[in-house]
Write a structure and sequence with these properties.
The structure holds two protein chains of two kinds.
Chain A lengths: L8 H10 L7 H11 L1 H18 L1 H4 L27 H5 L14 H37 L1 H16 L2 H12 L3 H11 L2 H15 L2 H8 L4 H37 L11 H8 L7 H29 L6
Helix pairs in contact in A: 2-14, 3-6, 3-14, 6-7, 6-9, 6-10, 6-12, 8-9, 10-12, 11-12, 12-13, 12-14, 13-14
Chain B lengths: L8 E12 L10 E13 L4 E5 L6 H8 L7 E6 L2 E2 L5 H7 L3 E4 L13 H12 L7 H11 L16 H14 L4 E5 L7 H18 L2 E6 L2 H7 L2 E6 L2 E7 H6 L4 H8 L6 H6 L30 H5 L5 E4 L2 E3 L25
Parallel strand pairs in B: 3-8, 3-9, 6-7, 7-8
Antiparallel strand pairs in B: 1-2, 1-4, 4-5, 9-10, 10-12, 11-12
Helix pairs in contact in B: 3-4, 3-5, 4-5, 5-6
The chains are: A mainly alpha, B alpha/beta.
Chain lengths: 317, 347
């Protein structure tokens, strides 16, 4: 095949082409935009630290989370104890860096293992909501019609019943432990993902590049994965990230109410509940896990916000 | 291959009707939009049919219905003498290679997350057109054909200008090695200077590969450059179809005359003296089209008959058809409107 005769405008085209800036994928642009946002970068650092702490809990904790020495119950942290050993470096390596709780368990170790609980809950719950909500929403948005109205009725039902009440009901019914806290939060919290997936698939279905793929003779499944999912991924990742602090707070709330993680396993929410009785003297026992919850939630929220701005297709222009 | 006498594309009595959701309780009171209502066209191999009309007249829907991208209510579409309307989605898939589409909006028609290479390889991949190792070379060849450098392959659509993106879209359509391409307003979104480049590219490709085009546009000047045959659409129907020369020199339907008189003439002297037919009012809603001739509400020569009787598409010359009661005759002002007499002028 011979190349086409385009006498006058071939030059202008190649001239135009040489002015195109260096190859810049949407992905790389997103990463650049993300790190330009300072809060998001700080959030990412905290998320990495907290997740790492949770993963490496057995290495960081000084003892086991359930090792109780009743004789040492309610010990002050060495640094706060006036009779304790100053100067500072010493107390970092003390037997109980943050003192002990009401039955003599090392508070520091429980805090670290609490991070592990929070991380397990924080990542599993959004995964379950994604696994339920995304296929439902995608089917509703893609097929429309009767499928859409059926899914919408289900979504309306779930919206009408407060999800925390439903979760409480299910937890009382089936008993509460870490696994049930995750499952029931998951099956009561998929509405948002479903709505988002539906909206994404509905708008992308009408885009010209999807029509072009169909005109090429591509099967509907291939179109969904190659063209729709790739473009819907950004908002869904953001939704997932922003779902993490919600799940962590939900677990903390349920544990505070006594319907969360069961007993020897520590959880920040439960630690707040257990310590609030001694708050007049041992105020830090409630403050420290509360602070941990707050910092973790903030970090994930900043991370999610940063991802949203970075993955926003509007910013690509 | 089919015999040379059969046209490449033959559309007969195509209808695309959309149901609007009912306004009443339980979805009662449903209304129907007749986007395309009884449209027939034929395109010979290697020829271009220009389809013109105002926005909302159903010309894009026609293009999509021919490619089975819009639901067809009735009629037949034959490509290479094969009826596409009766095929299932799975049966249609291999045939889709023969018919492609280039879109109006070069920003929306390319997946923003795919590289140019991925976009142009896709048709080759879907229809397994080339062996794996020849595909990259083929993509480079296609890009050269449409006037893009091979270095464009690894880039993403957002790095290109509108005209360049349209070239990518054309390369994608060509990659399928089609016989027939629907050009759905391919230059409407581009600067005038770029428009002529793209039009020339399309014409060159047509000659080189013997392509058949359905060129959809609202700009008669652009259609005039591109088409062998022109069809004018109004409210889902063809009101006039003729060869390019006949349509531009002797338009018969008052709507065509009005459209042509809206094309400015590049000479201020002639432009100043030119008589313009200015249409008043909006395009009527296709939900409630006017009775009789659909155009009578805006027609400068409408008579009582037009409000009652819908004109059919009559042949008034070789390859020239118009659906107007007065087509082929002298202007109706000169005519004694006697009932019963022939409306065709006696010589």
């Amino acid at each position: 095949m011979t190349s086409l005769q385009l006498p006058s405008d071939t030059d202008t085209i190649s001239g135009e082409a040489s002015r195109i800036e260096a190859a810049n994928s949407p992905m790389r642009q997103s990463i650049q935009r993300f790190f330009r946002n300072r809060l998001a970068a700080i959030g990412l650092v905290f998320v990495v630290v907290i997740t790492g702490g949770g993963l490496l809990a057995p290495l960081i904790a000084t003892t086991s989370y359930d090792y109780s020495v009743l004789r040492d119950a309610l010990k002050f942290p060495p640094c706060a104890d006036p009779k304790g050993s100053l100067p500072f470096p010493d107390c970092m390596f003390a037997k109980y860096p943050l003192g002990t709780d009401a039955i003599g368990r090392d508070f520091w170790s429980r805090l670290i293992y609490g991070a592990r609980t929070s991380m397990i809950v924080g990542f599993s719950v959004p995964l379950i909501t994604l696994a339920i909500g995304l296929p439902l929403g995608a089917a509703a948005g893609w097929f429309g019609g009767r499928v859409d109205s059926t899914v919408l009725r289900l979504v309306e039902f779930m919206t009408a019943v407060p999800s925390i009440l439903l979760a409480l009901f299910l937890l009382t019914l089936f008993g509460h432990d870490l696994q049930n806290v995750i499952i029931f939060q998951g099956i009561t919290g998929w509405v948002g993902v479903c709505r988002l997936g539906r909206a994404q698939f509905m708008t992308l279905r009408e885009r010209d590049f999807v029509t072009a793929a169909r005109a090429l003779g591509m099967s509907e499944w291939s179109i969904m994965f190659r063209h729709v999912m790739v473009n819907a991924a950004g908002p869904i990742i953001v939704m997932f990230t922003l779902g993490i602090p919600g799940a962590i707070f939900g677990e903390a709330g349920l544990s505070f109410l006594g319907l969360g993680v069961n007993d020897p396993i520590p959880s920040w929410g439960k630690m707040v509940a257990e310590s609030s009785r001694f708050a007049s003297v041992y105020w830090y026992l409630a403050m420290i896990p509360t602070g941990c919850i707050a910092v973790t939630m903030l970090a994930f929220s900043f991370l999610g916000d940063g991802l949203r701005d970075a993955l926003d297709p509007q910013g690509q222009r | 291959m089919t015999s040379t006498t059969a046209p490449l594309l033959a559309v007969d009595d195509l209808r695309v009707h959309f149901q609007l959701p009912g306004t009443g309780w339980f979805g009662s009171g449903k209304q129907t939009v007749k986007a395309v209502d009884g449209l027939s066209i034929q395109i010979e191999r290697g020829q271009t049919l220009g389809l013109v009309g105002e926005s909302g007249c159903g010309k894009s829907t026609t293009g999509r219905a021919i490619l089975r991208l819009a639901p067809i209510t009735g009629g037949t579409v034959r490509l290479n003498s094969r009826d596409l309307t009766t095929l299932s989605a799975a049966e249609l898939r291999p045939i889709r290679r023969q018919m492609q589409i280039v879109f109006q909006d070069p920003f929306a028609s390319l997946n923003p997350r795919h590289t140019v290479e991925q976009i142009v390889t896709e048709p080759i991949w879907v229809h397994n057109l080339r062996p794996e190792r020849e595909r990259v070379a083929r993509v480079r060849e296609l890009l050269t054909l449409v006037g893009l450098p091979g270095s464009a392959m690894g880039r993403f659509p957002h790095e290109f200008s509108g005209g360049q993106r349209q070239r990518i879209g054309i390369a994608r359509a060509l990659a399928a090695e089609p016989d027939f391409i629907v050009l759905d307003e391919p230059v409407s979104a581009l600067d005038v200077s770029i428009q002529s480049q793209i039009l020339r590219l399309l014409l060159d490709l047509q000659v080189q590969f013997g392509l058949t085009y359905l060129f959809i546009a609202h700009d008669l000047a652009v259609v005039g450059q591109m088409s062998d045959q022109v069809a004018v659409m109004y409210l889902g129907r063809i009101v006039e179809t003729a060869t390019r020369e006949a349509l531009y020199q002797a338009p018969q339907h008052p709507y065509t005359q009005a459209l042509l008189s809206a094309v400015p003439y590049p000479d201020p002297e002639i432009e100043a003296k030119r008589r313009r037919v200015i249409l008043t009012g909006e395009v009527p809603s296709p939900v409630n089209p006017p009775s009789g001739c659909h155009f009578h509400t805006r027609c400068p020569i409408a008579a009582d008959r037009c409000r009652v009787e819908a004109p059919s598409l009559r042949t008034i010359g070789p390859g020239h058809q118009a659906s107007c009661h007065f087509a082929g005759g002298p202007p109706p002002e000169l005519q004694g409107a006697k009932p019963g007499t022939s409306l065709r002028a006696s010589p």
